[in-house]
DOMON domain-containing protein (Chlamydomonas incerta), 633 residues
Amino acid sequence: MAAPFVAVSVSVLLSTLLGAATAATCYANFATKDYPSCVNVAPSLALHWSVSGGYITFAADVDGAWDWVGIGLSEGGMLGADLAVAAHDPGASQWTATDYWSPGFGFPARDDLQDVTLVAVSRAGGSTQVALRRPLVSCDLAQDRAVMNDTRQTVIWAVGSGAFAYHGPVNRGQSEVVLLSNTTAQANLPLPADVQTLELKMPTFTIPGNATTYQCVNLELPHDAKYHVYRYEPIIDNTPYVHHFVAWTCYGTADADAPATPVGTTYDCLGYMECSEFWMGWAPGLTKVDAEAQAALAFGSTTQKRYLALQIHYTNLQGVQGQVDSSGFRIYYSPTLKKYDMGVLTLGTHDIAVPAGAPSYTTVPNVCPGTCTSQLAAPGPVTLIESFYHMHQLGKSMITRHVRGGQELAPLGTRDYYDFAYQSPVNVPPPSRTLLPGDSLITTCTYSGVGRGNVTKFGEASYEEMCFNFLYYFPFNDSISYCITMARDLGGMASCTSIRTLQSLQTQDAFTAAVQAGEVVPVPANATTYKPYNPTCARTAPGAPGSAAQPASGGGGASPGEQQHRRNVGAAVITIIIIACLGGVAIWGVLRWMRVKRQAEEEQHLFQKYNPSTVGLPLVGATNSSSAPIGKV
């Protein structure tokens, strides 16, 4: 019985050594050499990770002594979440690792294919430290999310006491993180020396008792020179009531271009906007956003951007009175300009009619045709950065497809489990980031009309619907910001112009002139006929989904010693069977030999694993929750 004694002794020793460490600080309890990447996803949780051999290992250091810790990937919140959970079983005095999937808003279900490994766990120094390993790509397409290269993803987390159960509204969170950075990209460059900050905030505003409120304030940007936004981040003043907010720009830098409502005066903007071009947005989970290495949003002189409307969506479902807010954006801007200006291209449709009670309704595919992208990309290839998908309460999924020469490429990011409460930009996957002349972009939205008594159509209110993809790109083309197939009665035409031009098309003559100018272009009859994107999944980790071997003790992956140990045990079992066939008398001797050999190997293995000079965090009684081998972490 030496093995438990060794594990507990080393655990106590290292717990004492780590007792003075501060939790929720990167590398307080994990070593940089083991986990090269770390970010504080919350004040109470530092998330470390490493990538090796087709696996990613998450190491969470969270304030407090918890009985379970969950780390996962999602599109925001628990809907469609892929979750790895380490949980303590007090009855067995051990920890387990389990792979969960959350197809709905209820309690997550255990994956059919288990692909999670518990690497290490400890509760010491006022914090709980858990390391969980999983494949980057498991090819369990139904219940796992892939870790994507050079792409910002939503990392969710939750902790709890007692058995794994609902975490409540406090012990949870999410953050946007790039887990696999492109080492050649110039990401996270230092801000220029002449950077300035500007807060674009709502003046102190008393939130009404209504369930939904859209409030706007017009603001003025510096316009004495041209500036680039190197970074923007949210200022959240009253978190429970701020649903999301967006900055919309007006066109023009002259005094006459100012919006009707005076700067600094708030107004109700549900269904009414005084500035109409999408510029930047925030939704839960989004923290700071850094500009691309080569491009940034521009404002000031020569940009036609001087005024903007900050629109905040407040949610007050309980009708609480007396709540005030002053949220908004903090931007870091500089007259030191990058190579390109960044722009926003609006894709989507106004043609929405969700039938009452319909479990699923999908819009007619809306095409931004090649005749428009040929104008957008006429000076050269366009780089697509991210999609900001936007629907309302009935939205279920959304996608913008990228078609070139009749072949669909990887989509511009997707929202397979759209949640109105969690809206944030989706990075365009690297294979689809280049837009060439003649490419088509096809957007569809899917809704559910269950619970509605009437047809739901397009509109600004949350109880109405939208279908927009605000697509960030560079270099910016000031004359094209809206590429959407127009109403069916206009004969298959698409806008290829700015929103201000569209708003001026009030007569047939104006429409005809727009067609002649290429501001309204035809949509080919076969625009939605193409060879679908159908990639072959390549699992990054050894074995089939759910088949990776798992140490019986829940140890930190299969080391060469552990692999040799398993081979030895397997060989011993085969030997037992052969001897049993020859005669039962020899079985007792073989079993005794096998026990001695295994005990010796385990003692040697534990000495290597728990040697304080080689290990930064002990594994204390960790096992897997399944008797079947677990392959994903």
About this structure: The longest helix spans residues 560-582. The domain at 348-532 is CATH 2.60.120.230 (Jelly Rolls). The longest strand covers residues 226-235. Helices lie at 2-18, 370-376, 499-503, 508-516, 560-582, 587-609.
